[in-house]
Amino acid sequence: xxxxxxxxxxxxxxxxxxxxxxxxxxxxxxxxxxxxxxxxxxxxxxxxxxxxxxxxxxxxxxxxxxxxxxxxxxxxxxxxxxxxxxxxxxxxxxxxxxxxxxxxxxxxxxxxxxxxxxxxxxxxxxxxxxxxxxxxxxxxxxxxxxxxxxxxxxxxxxxxxxxxxxxxxxxxxxxxxxxxxxxxxxxx
Amino acid sequence: xxxxxxxxxxxxxxxxxxxxxxxxxxxxxxxxxxxxxxxxxxxxxxxxxxxxxxxxxxxxxxxxxxxxxxxxxxxxxxxxxxxxxxxxxxxxxxxxxxxxxxxxxxxxxxxxxxxxxxxxxxxxxxxxxxxxxxxxxxxxxxxxxxxxxxxxxxxxxxxxxxxxxxxxxxxxxxxxxxxxxxxxxxxx
Amino acid sequence: xxxxxxxxxxxxxxxxxxxxxxxxxxxxxxxxxxxxxxxxxxxxxxxxxxxxxxxxxxxxxxxxxxxxxxxxxxxxxxxxxxxxxxxxxxxxxxxxxxxxxxxxxxxxxxxxxxxxxxxxxxxxxxxxxxxxxxxxxxxxxxxxxxxxxxxxxxxxxxxxxxxxxxxxxxxxxxxxxxxxxxxxxxxx
Amino acid sequence: xxxxxxxxxxxxxxxxxxxxxxxxxxxxxxxxxxxxxxxxxxxxxxxxxxxxxxxxxxxxxxxxxxxxxxxxxxxxxxxxxxxxxxxxxxxxxxxxxxxxxxxxxxxxxxxxxxxxxxxxxxxxxxxxxxxxxxxxxxxxxxxxxxxxxxxxxxxxxxxxxxxxxxxxxxxxxxxxxxxxxxxxxxxx
DNA sequence: AATGAATGAGATTTCATTCAT
DNA sequence: TATGAATGAAATCTCATTCAT
Lengths: 188, 188, 188, 188
What we know:
By secondary structure, chain A is mostly helical. The first copy, chain A, has helices at about 1-15, 25-30, 35-40, 45-70, 75-100, 105-135, 145-160, 170-180.
């Protein structure tokens, strides 16, 4: 039941946004009473924090596995991009909340999540920096900005990509990794 | 005074989100009363629509000028990316609202804005498609997905880029256009 | 209307206690809506504070006037006791709230009220101490405890005395002042 | 465990008041669950009634013993005042609840307690009346009002007296009985 | 004897909106 | 143009109580 509350609230948060989703909306969606909600969560914000925490912890766990498994910076980076994009299928809704509703966490909770989020980004920045050093990537790249560019592309895809449309998540991942590696210019 | 209402509400919407910002918050910020607000705007949503409309109309106007002025697809695309990123300095707050609060427009208003937004994106897609056709860009690019990638990068920068930090908006624009054109791989 | 809210809430607080009186109870009593209540008072506690503050400030003002007007310690003390008891008629309800609901004020507000309350008591203690020094009162009295005894008697009367019963407030005041001055023992 | 529930609830009722203390507060204080509470008490009010009943029955029992043991009205009265004040040490918290939370009993339960409370007071009134008749006390006293004055003083002391402060309960009792017997005026 | 989950009623508070002045 | 008072709906949250286990 706690799980159902989480599932339904994720859907509603995606659809209407956190602020505009009421506890009533959530409990109506699964046919229980407000009292039940507050038995399982201390507050609406506590639910939001729960969602954020389990999502970012999951991302960090999977990122870590890739960093340990892959050998080259190129494959490390590509695998991370692939798993982020392919994740749209399984947890696209979660991702959209994650990037939009952080502001509604309390100061302390927000800090906790932001810290982990930065860690995730820093890990990617390290891949880029290492790749530049060892010659896999172009010398004149700025690791930090390049990381933001890559994350911008992937994160943004959560906002528009429909996994049931013409392209599959894997196909999108392939297109995006090609774009990242080679840019758009025709070769001379 | 209508202008002040708009300015302050933009700041508040950025900071707390549309739903979580009350009319009281807005009028408190400029020291008037709620009655005044309703003299100038029919409703809270009308204000949000006003903000959206003037922003997207401005973007379309400037995009159109670039399309008419520039000659090659490459320069057309670069100029659009540059103006979007450099705009962070002048209207970053506006941009952040634009991409986040559309959901709080009514069905009709939302449709109007989405229509214009699609137009903006379609114009970019056309540049990419034309560039592929005429050989400026790689043959195997997918225009639509490439456009999403480019817009994802630029839009996302509104979320994290601080124009008063180490890099200027122009420097960021340069880094991003280089990334888009050439990717990250070292040349063989 | 703000006045009516205060008047009715005092009655209800006396009857049911602060915690057990709902905002709904209060606004129902005068036929307005909850929204109105919150237009006039920031919170339920703000109303309680308002009540406390205006009551204790009134008491201090009247006490001060007596201290300035009367000459002997005996008349000073008697006048204070008289006005407290005779006040039952005009503000008995207020008095009962005052002594019972302080706990429901916030820490800061509670401190403000307690401070003023102590001042009121200290002023009486000074009368007793002065009276002992100048020979009006018995040498072996303890000013502080004697003050508590006197205030205990008078305050307690707010809990049981019915001004519409057999005795008038003035008669009760006479009986109490006699008791305070002479005790109960038959003279030897 | 029932005893622990009672002990802890008394503390909480003193601190926060009956209405503002939740069952959750009580069971949290001793580390059990709400279900347990309802095994031992039919309702929150049942607990309050239990507390009131055992307290007033105890007072009546001890008062009765004094009435049977002491010979003169003066010693009877003094012994009752002494035991009430000295009781602050052992059951001060209980006393404070008793005088404050009666209102939260149901009509019937409230009547039972009020009945016993009146009996306690009537017994004191009888001592005063007898003392007047037999010449121990002044002729011009009003037994009922005098009783209220005495009970007011003693009851009020539960609100402010700290048995761990400068004075012991016995010392306070001595001061109060002296005050009751002799008043404050210096002898002529 | 005790627990954990759930309920339903009701509490305080917020807020967009209206309207007479 | 602007204000101040009021409204009504809905939001978050609390809480005494029940009940199957």
